[in-house]
Design a protein that fits this description.
alpha/beta; disordered N terminus
Length: 263
């Protein structure tokens, strides 16, 4: 595990040079040459931001449709930043961009960002970049309280790039799977993803259909693996009190078998 943002609000007080020095000190296993590459990419991103400062939402959609697949990474991230500006009215901070660059290069590592300090924007940009590569993205959150508003918030930003998003949460118990898993990006809770997989595997219901397991972004990973470890999806389990009527079921079973043998 590398620690990109041990304390993001603490890192915000640094200028660019101090930020990269702190990043290198917190991640000694990352080569100094890689840190320099990140520094160079950040400078190029800033240059691109000046060039796209007048882009409208329609300009972003046109770029996403015709040029995104051929664009280099700094250009793509600059477009993400401009999309954040249009949807949320501010640019992502340098530490958020550094976290994004790190996660793009280390897809199986953890990035520690404190709650309320820019994590949702990082997730939105990361999900959008992967979706623009043609990949299906599942964002796994710790509760419906997070998944539903985050998907709604991301929808405005993602629409600038022609991307669709929804959540897999249905508080009324009606799982509209066709709507859930047909979008580019899905925000949802662990149990609903598990139910979808089990419906495919055990009940032969085409829930995810041909939706690939391309990218999973786990938000609140400590909550999912520790706090909520016992709250996964279950299609069967013990029913308390059944032991008391076991004899009744035994008698019924014996009667059924006797009837079958007499046919």
């Amino acid at each position: 595990k590398h620690c990109v943002d041990k304390n993001l609000s603490f890192l915000q007080s640094y200028n660019s040079d101090e930020l990269f020095e702190r990043f290198a000190a917190m991640n000694p296993t990352i080569p100094a040459s890689k840190t320099q590459i990140y520094r160079g990419e950040m400078a190029v991103i800033k240059q691109h931001l000046e060039q796209v400062a007048t882009f409208t939402p329609e300009d972003l959609r046109r770029w996403a449709k015709k040029q995104s697949k051929l664009a280099d990474r700094p250009t793509k991230i600059a477009m993400m930043c401009h999309g954040i500006l249009l949807s949320k009215h501010y640019y992502p901070r340098e530490v958020q961009l550094l976290t994004l660059l790190f996660l793009l290069d280390h897809p199986r590592n953890l990035g520690e960002v404190h709650t309320g300090e820019g994590k949702s924007v990082i997730v939105m940009m990361l999900a959008a970049l992967k979706a623009l590569e043609g990949k299906k993205v599942d964002v796994i959150t710790s509760s419906e309280i997070l998944a539903v508003p985050q998907a709604r918030e991301a929808a405005v930003f993602l629409a600038f790039f022609g991307l669709t998003v929804t959540n897999n949460c249905d508080s009324d118990g009606n799982r509209d799977y066709k709507r859930h898993y047909s979008t580019d990006i899905v925000y949802g809770v662990t149990a609903e993803y598990e139910f979808a997989i089990m419906d495919d595997m055990y009940f032969d219901r085409p829930v995810r259909k041909d939706r690939a397991f391309d990218v999973a972004i786990v938000d609140e990973v400590d909550s999912m693996l520790l706090d909520e470890i016992n709250n996964g999806a279950r299609i069967s389990g013990r029913i308390y009190g059944m032991k008391g009527i076991k004899l009744v079921y035994h008698i019924v079973w014996e009667s059924l078998m006797a009837s079958v043998n007499n046919l």
